[in-house]
């Protein structure tokens, strides 16, 4: 029991961070990756877990934990009792610290080399270890580790909530943007579709109040497959204390709400946002710990759980107000500030694009005064006019070239026709006189066609060519 209490107390209030239950007897292998241990989200997660796991093996230190109150541990005062730890354990702690110092030095050197932050976007964390003494793990190291982990985990929880708020505001902004780019008919259709999706999301079975009798009994019946009339809080507690350490950890409490989340969110439904589902289960867990975790250690022991089931409110099922009904995710003022920030960012990108367009190879673009940009506009307009004039001249040239090709084709056609007539005339001269009458008549019928073609062709050419010459002049 105290092994998990120790882990949870040193990690201190993993609020909003879902960690798998600690399995008794499992320890991270030396040199194992962070993923092989309990992930807290901290940059020094591996160091933290290795220290905790080694301290678990010392009977004297464990006994001291059994007699210490929560505040004594959270304040870091328990570090004074590090002298109780066996020499062999101390040597292991020293080695763990030396590896951590080497890791930190490597990160700092890399940061200095590239003059940037660590790859994950955070500055290199240094406050969890005493760098003045890089060789051995002392009381100050344990105190620093506990205090820094407490601060950092709380900060991670705040970041989670802020990230979700930003996510929701971004969704709202994108909807507004999409509607603004539609015509009235399309906008009405889209607004109706959004309304239908919201209504469809609300159509689900009743959500029980987290931690209420009705909610726990539903888990008892549908998950544990037991008779609802035989619901027993003590039996229920033991069934869901998965690792048998005598407490319900955050992940074990969250598992109790899986059924409720499944009622509200289905990954196959377009109207259900699974990112909201994750936040929903965090809110349920926080609510239950707020009601039942009387010693504020973010663990529910058997006594705390029993007191929860004995409260008058336990028998009342007030339901649950989901995220889609919560108006407190962000305020109107926060939304306005968010949209203002987006507009400023958009304006900055536009100006940056102007600078990039003005840049020449080998030149460094200096910040441009808006007045200078305004003064450059007449020059840009003149360039546009010159470009338009050049395009008109190109069109005129193409038109003239087309007429020339037509004239050339007509001349070739006339030449071919003349050759055919000459050949026909020669053939008629070689035939008897009686046989020449019909071809002569035929020639007379065709002759006007030749004359008409010869007379009309220059006129057409002149009419087509004349406007181009005038326009060119």
UniProtKB/TrEMBL annotation:
Parts forming coiled coils: 139-166
Pfam families referenced in this protein's UniProt entry, alphabetically: EF-hand_7 (PF13499), NUCB1_N (PF25434)
Cited InterPro entries: EF-hand-dom_pair, EF_Hand_1_Ca_BS, EF_hand_dom, NUCB1_N, Nucleobindin
The name this protein goes by in its record: Nucleobindin-2 isoform X2
GO MF entries: calcium ion binding; DNA binding; guanyl-nucleotide exchange factor activity
Signal peptide extent: 1-19
Composition skew (Low complexity), residue ranges: 376-473
Residue ranges of every copy of the EF-hand domain listed in the record: 234-263
UniProt subcellular location: Cytoplasm; Golgi apparatus; Membrane; Secreted
GO cellular component: endoplasmic reticulum-Golgi intermediate compartment; extracellular exosome; Golgi apparatus; membrane
Protein keywords: Calcium, Coiled coil, Cytoplasm, DNA-binding, Golgi apparatus, Guanine-nucleotide releasing factor, Membrane, Phosphoprotein, Repeat, Secreted, Signal
Mode of membrane association: Peripheral membrane protein
Positions of the UniProt region annotated as Disordered: 363-473
Annotated gene: LOC115211595
Protein family per UniProt: Belongs to the nucleobindin family.
Organism domain of life: Eukaryota
